[in-house]
Amino acid sequence: MDRIIFKVTKEDEGKRLDNFLKYEKGFSTRLIKKITKNDCVFINGKVAWADDILKEGDEIEVIIKENKSQDISPEDIPLDIVYEDEDVLVVNKPPFMVVHPTKSHQSGTLANGVMNYFTKTSQNCIVRLVNRLDRDTSGLVIIAKSQFAHQAMAKMFENNQVKKEYLAIVEGKMEGKGTIDLPIDRPSLDSVKRCVIETGQRAITHYEVIKSNNEVSLVKLLLETGRTHQIRVHLSHIGHPILGDELYGNKSHFINRQALHAYKLVFKKVRGDSLVECKADLPLDMLKVLKEYNLE
C-alpha cells in the first residue's frame, strides 16, 4: 500500500480534485476513478469526491492499494545503483544485459537483479520499467516503485520533460553540432530494422561532437523524441553509423556491440519540484575504443 500526501498551494486553489490529480500530479484517469470509487482519497482526513473543489492549505491523502505480484525471479545480480528515492530507482545497465525477461532470455536480466534488490531491502515493489535500452546499449534505466510513480514518470517522458543524453562513438569525422529531424519507421511490419521514411513518426536528435579524428568521433546526443533505434538510424542515415553497430553499420575489430551509452538523465522528482541529475561514466569497452583511436 502506498500513501501519498499533497499540500494544496494558492496556485491550485479552486481546482477540482480529479483535475488536480490528473494534470498537476500525473495520475491517469483510470487510477483516479479507481481510488475515488474505493474511498481511497481524503481531504483533511475526510473521504473526498472527484468533483470536490480544493482550497489553499488542504491536505490531500491518497491511498493506493496494488496487486504486487510479478512473475520475475529474484537473482543475485550486482547492480550499479546511481540514484534512489521513495519513488524511483536508477541503475546503470552494463552492455549485453537484457532489461526484462523474454522467451529467449528468462533469467539474467536487469529486472531479475532489481527484483532481488527489492527483496533484500524489504521493499514491497514490482519492477516497473520507465525506459528501456537495447541489450547491447549500456547506461541509465529508470525503474518506478509504484503505479503512481510509473504514470508520473511516463507522463514526463511523453511531454519531453526528461533530458536524455547519450554518448556514441561513430565512424568517420564529424564536426560541430546540429539537429537531425527525420521521420523513422519500419519499412515493413516484419522488419526489425528501422529506417528514415517519409511516412514515419517524427524523430528529433540533437548532436554535438566532443572530439574526433579522421577515423572516429565521440558524439554527445540529446533525444527530443524516443523512437526505437532512433540514434542508430539517424547517425547511419547521415553517413556516420555507430561503431560496431552491425544492424545499421559495420562490424568493428575493437568493440563487439554498438558503441552507444545512455550517460545522463535529468528529471523532476515525482514528489516535489527539485531536479534529479543522474550520470553514468563511459563503460570500459568504449574507453578502450577511444584509446585505440587515440581519442582518450
UniProtKB/TrEMBL annotation:
Top EC category: isomerase
Active site, renumbered: D134
Reaction catalysis annotation: a uridine in RNA = a pseudouridine in RNA
Keyword Protein transport in the entry? The reply is no
GO MF: RNA binding; rRNA pseudouridine synthase activity
Domain annotation RNA-binding S4: ranges: 15-78
Q: What biological-process terms (Gene Ontology) are attached?
A: enzyme-directed rRNA pseudouridine synthesis
Organism domain of life: Bacteria
- What Enzyme Commission number(s) apply to this enzyme? 5.4.99.-
Kindly give the InterPro entries that the UniProt entry links to this protein: PsdUridine_synth_cat_dom_sf, PsdUridine_synth_RluA-like_CS, PsdUridine_synth_RluC/D, PsdUridine_synth_RsuA/RluA, RluA_PseudoU_synthase, S4_RNA-bd, S4_RNA-bd_sf
Q: Name one Pfam family in it.
A: PseudoU_synth_2
Q: Which UniProt keywords apply?
A: Isomerase, RNA-binding
Enumerate the SUPFAM superfamilies for this protein: Alpha-L RNA-binding motif, Pseudouridine synthase
Belongs to which family? Belongs to the pseudouridine synthase RluA family.
Explain the purpose of this protein: Responsible for synthesis of pseudouridine from uracil.
Q: What is this protein called in UniProt?
A: Pseudouridine synthase
Q: Which organism is it from?
A: Caloramator fervidus
